[in-house]
């Protein structure tokens, strides 16, 4: 269903200093999401805390809860949705706590060590 709401040139960008930070196509995003799920014990549950809408997009504030491979992983997120002139989502940019991610999912104390998708 989500795929029908996105534009042909859709991109997803994960901001920050993580090894997986970058811009993805829809297909690449699905791959990355699978790797992310492999770092969680029982999946991820997100709660939408706030939505701020405008003509060309929205800001969605979320809180997430999960059990990571290295303990509790409760992170906060900001998703910026950009809507094109056809009314389709053309871009999503995500912000989250890099430090919490690497500590609870990679078992590192800081973002210095880089992992590749193959190492996950």
Descriptive tags:
alpha+beta, 120 residues, Nuclear Transport Factor 2, Chain: A, 2 helices
Topology-level CATH name:
Nuclear Transport Factor 2, Chain: A
Q: Number of folding domains?
A: 1
Number of strands: 7
Radius of gyration: 15 Å
Query: What is the first-to-last residue Cα distance?
Result: 28 Å
Description:
By secondary structure, the chain is an alpha+beta fold. The protein has one domain: Roll (Nuclear Transport Factor 2, Chain: A). The chain contains two helices and seven strands, in the order E-E-H-E-E-E-E-E-H. It has helices spanning 26-37, 98-106; strands at residues 6-14, 22-24, 40-53, 57-68, 71-72, 76-83, 89-96. Strands 1, 2, 3, 4, 5, 6 and 7 form a seven-stranded mixed β-sheet that branches. Strand 3 and strand 4 form a beta hairpin. The longest helix is centred in the first third of the chain and has 12 residues, at 26-37. The protein is globular. It starts with 5 loop residues before the first strand and ends in a 14-residue tail after the last helix.
């Amino acid at each position: 269903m989500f795929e029908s709401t996105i534009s042909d040139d859709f991109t997803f960008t994960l901001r920050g200093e993580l090894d997986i930070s970058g811009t993805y196509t829809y297909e690449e995003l699905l791959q990355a999401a699978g790797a992310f799920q492999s770092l969680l014990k029982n999946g991820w549950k997100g709660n939408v805390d706030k939505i701020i809408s405008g003509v060309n997009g929205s800001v969605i504030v979320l809180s997430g809860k999960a059990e990571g491979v290295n303990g509790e992983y409760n992170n906060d997120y900001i998703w910026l949705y950009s809507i094109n002139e056809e009314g389709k989502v053309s871009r999503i940019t995500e912000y989250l706590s890099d430090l919490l991610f690497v500590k609870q999912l990679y078992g590192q104390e800081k973002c210095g060590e880089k992992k590749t998708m193959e190492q996950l």
